[in-house]
Design a protein that fits this description.
Blueprint (H helix, E strand, L loop, with lengths): L1 H4 L4 H32 L7 H25 L1
Length: about 70
């Protein structure tokens, strides 16, 4: 408001408003960043190593069975 009252140019007023809005949005992003990072990279949500190993073993077993069936057909 001070800039408008001081009769500054419209582009200066617009630039100042943009700067204030960017600063405010950057502050909000910084506030939410820890919560989002925790939600995405939280170890409570991540699969455990035994679960990963079991999934890989099951996948390998299926691939082996498919390969064996293909060889039998030949």
């Amino acid at each position: 408001m001070d800039m408008i009252a001081a009769d500054d140019s419209a582009s200066q007023v617009s630039d100042k408003i943009k700067d204030l809005l960017y600063a405010k949005s950057a502050q909000r992003v910084d506030e939410y960043r820890p919560a989002v990072a925790s939600g995405v990279f939280n170890s409570d949500n991540a699969p455990t190593q035994p679960e990963v190993d079991a999934a890989l073993a099951a996948e390998t077993e299926v691939e082996t069975e498919v390969d064996a069936e293909e060889q039998e057909e030949e």
